Write the structure tokens for this entry.
Amino acid sequence: MNNQSVLPLNRVASPITLPQCNAPAVPRMTLTDPALNVMTDFTKTAVFSIGLDEPVDHALLYMKTAGVRLLFVLGNDGGLAGLVTSLDIMGEKPMLYLQSIDCNHMTCSRSDVLVKHVITPVSRWEVIDYTDIENAQISQIVAAFKASGRRHLVVVGRSENCPESIVRGIFSASRIEQATSLQLEIVSTARSFAEIKHVLSHS
């Protein structure tokens, strides 16, 4: 016979809220510190994702609640379809999409813009292999940001339990700026032109 006492179940007596997932404070670093020190490691922290057909403003609210600036996007089959950032949503991509479908205030609105309309699909990613950053310095990640014209870089790797590549982590320019107190000058003009063409051709 089990002599342990039964745990009491209680009614909620007052309003409650979901916890805010605030990232821990980033310690001060220099460009010569190991790159792994500023990588968000998905073997140690949660990965946040959203569906293709969610409105962009729902995605932005989710980011704010989770304390992140990037969400991975899952396709209707549950597979990884791409990613979306807060800059994608708050920038020109939503308006470009609405212009591409000849939208006006009488026929459609921002609420018609879905995640799939501003996504950066996996096929357009430029990724870093985990084995290449194990001994890298933060300065090398900064150089990669400038070369790519992006503020997020996905790190891929291998798992003993999975023969396919997995998303191992991510580098954020904002995180590096916080850690080093430097302002990274990342020029994305050429890159954004290609993405504008992608948005205009996508519906």
Summary: Confidence is low (pLDDT under 50) at residues 189-194, 196-203. DSSP finds eight helices and eight strands in the chain.
